[in-house]
Amino acid sequence: MEHHTSSTQDPITLLQYYQDVCNVYDIQAAVALFADDGSIEIDGTMYCGQVALCAAHECDLGSQTQVRFGDYVVEGDRVSCSFITCDVLDRAVGLDGRHMHAEFTIRSGRIVRFLSLPADEQERQRHYAAKHAFHTWAQTHYPDEVAKGVNFDYEAGASLTHVVQAWLNRH
User: Fold this and answer.
1) Residues near 117 by Cβ (< 8 Å), separated by ≥ 6?
2) How far is CA 133 from the centre of its chain?
3) Which helix (H) or strand (E) element contains residue 117?
4) Cα–Cα distance for residue pair 22/57, rounded to 1 Å
5) Separation of alpha carbons 84 and 23, rounded Å
6) 43-55 burial by CB neighbour count: b if 16+ within 10 A, else e?
7) Given its phi and psi angles, is residue 25 left (phi above 0), alpha (psi -120 to 50 degrees) or beta?
């Protein structure tokens, strides 16, 4: 970790590095950027500590998710930014990802909290319209796989990839 300290003291540099390691699925490097008690919070659920953070990043590996942060606003130890997450299903239905915002709390060059804010109503509708047929089909043909999606781990991500592949090959 020591060799990153100087280059990641700047919060924007830190988050750009985090984006880079996430997008090549270097889970150890990604988790190492978090404080020991660091957390990711999504839809009111907090994934806290190294084990939960590893599982969250493994979910992205399983679902072939790519992330992009931008439009950074730094205020003290908080960074607000745009956040785009694009997984295997987004690509299968021709979407460029889910456009949201995130807030990071950074202390001593480590991520203490990564808060993923919910997409706005227009974005939710855009995804619903594009994915509704897939979700209906998946719930009918792969209910057990769909049920795994409530988790935030490698199996949940990999099951999404599996069902998307089956959906793409259904004809």
Assistant:
1) 83, 100, 101, 102, 103
2) 23
3) strand 110-117
4) 7
5) 12
6) eeeebeeeebbbb
7) left
Tokens 């995804």 found at = 127
Q: Cα(143)–Cα(34) distance, rounded to whole angstroms?
A: 35
Bridge partners (DSSP) listed for residue 123: none
The closest alpha carbon to 22, from 83, 94, 108, belongs to 83
Mean pLDDT of the chain: 94
Q: What is the pLDDT of residue 8?
A: 58
CATH of domain 2-168: 3.10.450.50
Q: Both tokens of residue 100?
A: 């949201």
Q: Rounded distance, CA 59 to CA 42, Å?
A: 13
How many other C-beta atoms can be found within 10 angstroms of the C-beta atom of residue 62?
22
**Residue 76: band (very low, low, confident or very high) from pLDDT cuts 50, 70, 90:** very high
The helix (H) or strand (E) run that includes residue 118 is: none
**Coil/strand/helix, residue 155:** helix
Residues counted in the chain: 171
